[in-house]
Design a protein that fits this description.
One of its GO terms (molecular function) is 5-amino-6-(5-phosphoribosylamino)uracil reductase activity. This is Dihydrofolate reductase. It is a single chain. The chain has a single domain, classed as Dihydrofolate Reductase, subunit A (3-Layer(aba) Sandwich), CATH 3.40.430. Helices cover about 20% and strands about 30% of the residues. The chain contains four helices and twelve strands. The strands form three sheets. The protein has an eight-stranded mixed beta sheet with strand order 7-6-5-8-1-9-12-11, with helices on both faces. Strand 5 (about 60-65), helix 2 and strand 6 form a beta-alpha-beta unit. The two termini are about 15 Å apart.
């Protein structure tokens, strides 16, 4: 079974979206360099960010997201983001009728079913969990091994929190990755068991 990683870009005050549910400048760092991050050539980062992010992205076998993220992005038009092989959507509703029937997206009810499906699909590769409400549920269930954050120099003041609605304390180890890129600080923490 692969590692389970909670991941997102985040403001310095801990938000993954502003009060209008928009990411604002949180993804500007993905356009701040001259090294293509994927085959599209649209995302260009610093060499430092590329060396940190590309190997991580290559390890991801499936990403777990909530229905809200799926709806906001229209499921990335049926193409999983960042070259990920599969997306597992936690929802009480199934696949939208007629929506990209061949897309490698799976619609399940609850985090237990999402984790089971993601691990079935990925084997020993990384299961990525989107930060926010779904991430907080997986963290509360004790299933997150690692927290990764791309911290962007912006303060939102309010909005959607990286750790969602976590109501209990969770200890993390000291960061074992701290890398400064252009307009971003990449951090990685292991979850203390």
């Amino acid at each position: 079974m692969g590692k389970v990683v909670m991941y997102s870009s985040v403001s310095v005050d801990g938000f993954i979206a502003d009060e209008n549910d928009q990411p604002g400048p949180l993804f500007d760092w993905l356009l701040s360099g001259d090294v293509p991050l994927d085959e599209s050539g649209v995302l260009k980062v610093s060499q430092t960010s590329y060396d940190c992010i590309r190997p991580y992205w290559d390890q991801i076998g499936a990403t777990i997201v909530g229905r809200h993220v799926f709806d906001m992005t229209n499921g990335w038009d049926g193409t999983p983001p960042a070259g990920v092989d599969h997306v597992v959507v936690v929802t009480h509703r199934g696949r939208p009728e007629g929506w990209y029937p061949e897309a490698p997206f799976y619609f399940v009810d609850g985090i237990a079913a999402a984790m089971a499906k993601a691990q079935e699909l990925t084997g020993d590769r990384v299961v990525e969990v989107a930060a926010g409400d779904i991430g907080s549920q997986v963290l509360a269930a004790g299933l997150i091994d690692e927290v990764r954050m791309d911290v962007v120099p912006v303060v939102f003041g309010s909005g959607k929190r990286y750790f969602g609605s976590v109501h209990t304390q969770h200890l993390l180890e000291d960061p074992d990755v701290v890398i400064q890129g252009n307009r971003v600080l990449h951090l990685r923490y292991r979850v203390r068991r």
